Amino acid sequence: MKGSCLFLLFLLASLSSLTGKDRNILVIHSYHRGYHWTDRTQDSIDAVLGGREDTEIHIVYMDTKRNSDPDYLDLLYKEYKVKYRDIPFDAVLSADDHALDFMLKYGDDLFPGVPVVFCGINMYEPRRIAGHANYTGIGESYDVPGLFRLISRLHPDRDEIAVIMDSTLSSESLLRLVQEAEIINTSRFKVTYYSGLSTQELTHTLSRLGENTIILWGIHLRGREGEFYTVKESLDLIRAATDAPVYSIWDVVGFGVVGGRVSRPEEQGRVAATMVGEILDGTDVGDIPVARAHLVDYFDYAVMGDYGIRLSGLPPGSLVINRPFALLRENKLLFGTIFLFITALLIIIILLVWDIGRRKRAEEQLIQSREQLAQSRKMDAIGQLAGGVAHDFNNILTGILGAADLIHDEEHLSEQGEEYLDMIISSSRQAADLTYQLLAFGRKSKNQSERLDMHRVIKDTLFILKQTLNRNISFSTRLSAANSMVMGNKPALQNVIMNLCINGAQAMPGGGDIRIDTSSLFLDEQMCSSSDFDIVPGKYLEVGISDQGTGIPQDQLEKIFEPFFTTKRKGSGLGLAAVYGTVKEHRGCISVISEEGKGTAFLLYFPQV
User: Fold this and answer.
1) 3-state SS of 477-516?
2) Among residues 300, 173, 166, which one has the least CA distance to residue 237?
3) What gap in Å lies between CA 402 and CA 411, rounded to an integer?
4) Is 83 helix (H, G, I), strand (E, B) or coil?
5) pLDDT per position as a tens digit, 129-151
6) What is the pLDDT of residues 428-446, one digit of tens each?
7) Which of 375, 377, 386, 416 is nearest to 562 (CA)?
């Protein structure tokens, strides 16, 4: 059993050595975690001592802003007695008055012979640590008379000061300081003290203050009825109840006060931690004298503006938070140079972007022109070829049809012979229709233009279509153009309407309605210049032919007018090419709108007469 205990002790010692932490420091904060002064003090302690790999920092919070009676402090003593009895501390850092008083009373029993470094001490006097040779630290500094002079300088028209306090130790220290300052400034300010008021009493009191009053905030964190406020809650309560400017001798700048002459917690924590570091490095605590914190004039720019306080009115060397464009003001030449440089860069970038855009548009226009030229050359070449072939083929067909007509007049033909002859004539006429399309496409046909009523052309064409197309195809018209007169060739225009209607019927194998509409409109210069057709501004007749068929895929819309291109299983691919050529010959233009599964609409435009 004895051997087991020795083994466990040896094991614990070994584990302790593995942590590498052979130094221990205890930080005792008077107040609670989250209190702005305490947190900022601890941040500075961590910044100085946190990097020591051989040192373990233990932290406790006494919470004396909310609990400070003797019984509570006695309980803390008993807790620490048990909690830290087996930890050999190399130093204790006490922050603020309650922690120092606690160490002066219980420290020799809890941590005999351990050096103590304090900070954040109100009204520090050497006699406070008399008889304790192992104590040193940094005490706070105050200048309430200087604060009164500062207030007088910034608010020359105000002559009353209302001191708002609670019943804590820090407020008691403030009370003595203000009373001493009041004696010095008796001829300038009338000072009234408000201590330990409830929330309702404080609100009522503040609302009745005169317009010439200044508020001096003196640690008001606890109310008469036991209410506890954070710094922000306390100052928000005060500012909500009165428009009077608020000052303080404590560093609460940033919570709604105008400012004050203050010592900062960051300096207190940094100096105290540096002293602890010196002790850990071998310096005797008796060789480290007690220091005094520096005072700074500290202001909040965001609050100064509420009372017309200018930066120029502050004492030289003042620190100002929430100061806008401070860096700009302090480096005018640098920022001026940077501004000019950035402006020049922006101008260059804008010019480059404009030039790139201009060049890109020019390149796109060049590419488009090249594509149009290539397409035009291809169409001309195919047109010449088609026209030449169609012309010769038409001569052959003329001979075939003439011979067929002569044979048809013969009386001795058998029934089967007449049937074959009819097939020859029918096929020849179909070939003649194809030849006509080729001639129109190749611009070889000699179309004679005349004054035509397009409405009559449409009606005559529909009469033919109704006789030839499947009966499940219906036609509806809305011929509403006020002027339907155009110059053109009737057979050619009828061929255009027939081609588009037959295509629509083929796109609706289950039947459907083909709609033909007309209207008058004016095409302006912008619309004409954006068209691929050679058209001029003026009044045009619009003919719309639409179906409810399968539609044309979007990626094929640009190709439908090309010769020999077709979306149908059977077809020559010349119908729409002939339509395109005819419309162009009539100095018009054509466009198409289509959506798969919903149908197609062709819009034809012809100059009105």
Assistant:
1) EEECCCCCEEEECHHHHHHHHHHHHHHHHHCCCCCEEEEE
2) 166
3) 17
4) helix
5) 999 999 999 998 888 888 888 99
6) 666 666 566 555 555 544 5
7) 375
Q: What is the pLDDT of residue 430?
A: 60
Q: How many residues does the chain have?
A: 609
Residue 422's region, left for phi above 0, alpha for psi from -120 to 50, else beta, is alpha
H helices of 265-331, where?
A: 265-280, 301-304, 326-330
Q: How far apart are CA 307 and CA 130, in angstroms?
A: 46
- Other beta carbons less than 10 A from residue 412's beta carbon: 5
Helix axes 332-408, 415-441, angle to 10 degrees: 150
Domain with residues 447-607, CATH architecture: 2-Layer Sandwich (3.30)
Which residue ranges make up each domain of the chain? 21-139, 144-262+294-324, 328-445, 447-607
Residue keyed to tokens 């499940």? 472
- For residue 515, give the nearest of 579, 596, 453, 601 by alpha carbon: 601
pLDDT tens-digit readout, 39-78 = 999 999 999 999 898 899 999 999 998 888 899 999 999 9
- H or E element at residue 13: helix 2-19
Distance CA 236, CA 256 (A): 7
**pLDDT tens digits, one per residue of 172-218:** 777 777 877 777 665 678 888 888 788 888 899 999 998 899 999 88
Estimate the share of the chain in helix, then strand, then coil, as percent rounded to the nearest 5: 50, 20, 30
CATH architecture of 144-262+294-324: 3-Layer(aba) Sandwich (3.40)
> What integer pLDDT is reported at residue 165 of this predicted model?
84
CA distance 592 to 558: 9
Q: Do domains 21-139 and 447-607 have the same CATH topology?
A: no
Q: Is the pTM of this model over 0.70?
A: no
Closest CA to 73 of 62, 84, 85: 62
Of the candidate CATH numbers 3.90.1200.10, 3.40.50.2300, 3.40.50.150, 3.30.1360.40, the domain formed by 21-139 belongs to 3.40.50.2300
